[in-house]
Amino acid sequence: MTALAPAPVVAAGSAGQGLRTMVRRQLRANRTSTIVMAVLVAIANAVQIQAYTSVFPSAASRDALLLPFASNAGLRVLYGYPFDIGDVTGWVSWRSVSFVGLVLAVWAIMITCGALRGEEDAGRGEITLSQPQPRARWFAAAVCAVAIETAVIGVVSTAAMAVVGVGNHLMSVANSVELGLQVSLPAILFGAIAALACQLWGTVRAARLWAGAVLAVAFGIRAVADTGTGLGWLRWVSPLGWFEELRPPQPPGVVPLVVILGTSAVVVAAALPLLARRDIGLGVLAQSDSRPPRRFLLRTPWQAALRDELPQLATWLVVTMAMTALMGGLIKTVLDLVNQNPVMARVTGAEVGVNAFVAAMFSLIQVIAALLVVTLVAGARGEEATGRLELLLAMPRARLGWLAGRVVLAAGLAALLCLLAALAMWAGAAATGQHVALGALLAATGNSLPVVVVTAGFATAVLGLAPRAVSAGYAVVAVAYLWDALGTALRAPHWTLELSPFHALAQVPLQHVAVTPVLVLCALGLALFGAGAAAFRRRDLAAG
After folding, report:
1. Closest-CA residue to 374 (of 262, 496, 460)
2. Where are the membrane-spanning stretches (predicted)?
């Protein structure tokens, strides 16, 4: 087996050098996700500034068209309370920053738990602490790295909004800075909560689930506060409500800032004594060393993998279904907007307007499905990296059978996500009294499957050829999706746009299914799978 490389030896008296070394290591480990998140957040916020001026070109149109947005309960659940969306800064804060802040909170939970509890699970934390490095310094390095990465994302987002907003005389530099602060703070707070969870629970999965549960509860309380009558005070009970209380374009309130930063500091301070009192590799909360056998889903390797991924999979499915159900509830609002605009109603009509909305939503669902495929294939890589696959293949098991089972499982679960998202969107529309053809939604689901197939093939090829780079699949999916949007806006050559599978496929149900791109993407995905399987069969297992 491959021996783990020892951590860098740091002189006992060089505390600052040791901290910097560990911070640099964490920054290097998370550089891909940081860059991807910085680009995505910057583009999302800049696009909303441009969209505001395009959709609401005048004050008169703004007053008429914003009313359905402000009064829609589904939008309030998803984005929060629209305090001042008559101003472009308030619009970006409500429409983009609130949702992006939620995404960054999830990102911070993932990377913080990976930097702390993940290092312990892999055994690297114990190796690092065997050197003259105190636990508090190791902990501080992980927290500082997350703070630096969050600051980078905030600065890039601020710069993008300043270029677009200030350059077009839509907002001031101060407004851009305030929005950048609002988008960064959720990552700071929930990164601190994740650091505490890593001390309480003995595995990275348990820590992530616990921190994610805190985020889910905060989201639920905030949703009740924003949709109920006379329940605005509940925002002060939810951390997500604290971010809303910053209320751009007004200057940031001192009270919410003190509450957010103070709570983050208190949570981090509470984690330090817990780290000092527990054993490395264990959590403060006691875990049973034995329990009755549970043989559910243990007959085959792919069933065991499904059982292993069930908690994470449930989160993906529930969150996606909730989001698409809310989006389905917005279809009636879309129709109201179409009907209120005579030009739009004459050009598109109700059916085209609804189909365009559904097609746009399925572009997002395709991205989520592709990211789920990468996540599940990365889980297969984790089984190899931790040595569990070596033990499994010591038994009479074929490599290709194991690989095929994991990849088919990933593709099948991603297809299930697309189907459940379509049904949830249909149910959300029906709940508001709006009819949407179920057949059109199922056609859009089928049109999404080539993205799943080609992503599964690409991830398999990377797993076979460069196993340690499997996580780069997240960046590839993000770039392909962004190129579809940016390339179209920049009027890039048609053949370059076709390189993105999200652009190559037709926008169903707005358009008919394009058979040729479907066949090409499926064939490409199968070819990539074959290449990855052949490489995986020949190479040595790679630990670490």
Report:
1. 460
2. 32-52, 94-117, 138-163, 183-202, 209-234, 254-275, 313-335, 355-379, 400-426, 438-465, 472-492, 512-536
Q: What is the largest CA-CA distance in the chain?
A: 75
pLDDT for 369: 94
Type of residue numbered 370: A
Which of 187-196, 354-363, 462-471 is the most confident on average? 187-196
Residues 6+ apart with CB under 8 A from 302: 405, 406, 408, 409
Query: Rounded to an integer, what distance in angstroms lies between the CA atom of residue 190 and that of residue 193?
Result: 5
| Rounded Cα gap, residues 115 and 95, in angstroms | 31
Which residues lie below 8 Å from residue 334, measured CB to CB, with a gap of 6+?
Answer: 353, 354, 357
Pull the structure tokens for residue 62.
Answer: 């703004």
Q: What is the pLDDT of residue 393?
A: 76
Between the alpha carbon of residue 80 and those of residues 76, 92, 317, the distances in Å are: 4, 12, 22
- 3-state secondary structure labels for all residues of 224-291: HHHHCCCCHHHHHCCHHHHHHCCCCCCCCCHHHHHHHHHHHHHHHHHHHHHHHHCCCCCCCCCCCCCC
Prior bond of 509 cis (ω within 30°):
yes
d(CA 350, CA 357): 11
Q: Which of 35, 40, 36, 43 is nearest to 164 (CA)?
A: 43
Report yes or no: 75 and 121 within 8 Å, Cβ to Cβ: no
65 in Cβ contact with 224 (< 8 Å) = no
**Contact 500/481 with Cβ under 8 angstroms?**
yes
The C-alpha atoms of residue 108 and residue 315 are separated, in whole angstroms, by 16
Q: Which burial class, exposed, middle or buried, applies to 520 when counting CB atoms under 10 A from its CB (0-12, 13-18, 19+)? A: middle
**Among the listed residues 424, 427, 425, 473, the one whose alpha carbon sits nearest the alpha carbon of residue 451:** 473
Q: Are 340 and 64 in contact (CB under 8 A)?
A: yes
3-class SS of residue 76:
helix
pLDDT for position 154 = 93
pLDDT digits (tens, 9 = 90+) for 109-163: 999 998 898 888 777 777 777 777 788 888 999 999 999 999 999 999 999 999 8
pTM: 0.77
Amino acid letter, 279: D
**Residue 10: per-residue pLDDT:** 46
Q: Which helix (H) or strand (E) holds 397?
A: none
Helix, strand, coil tally for the chain in percent (to 5)? 75, 0, 25
- Find the helix or strand (DSSP H, E) in which 520 lies: helix 515-538
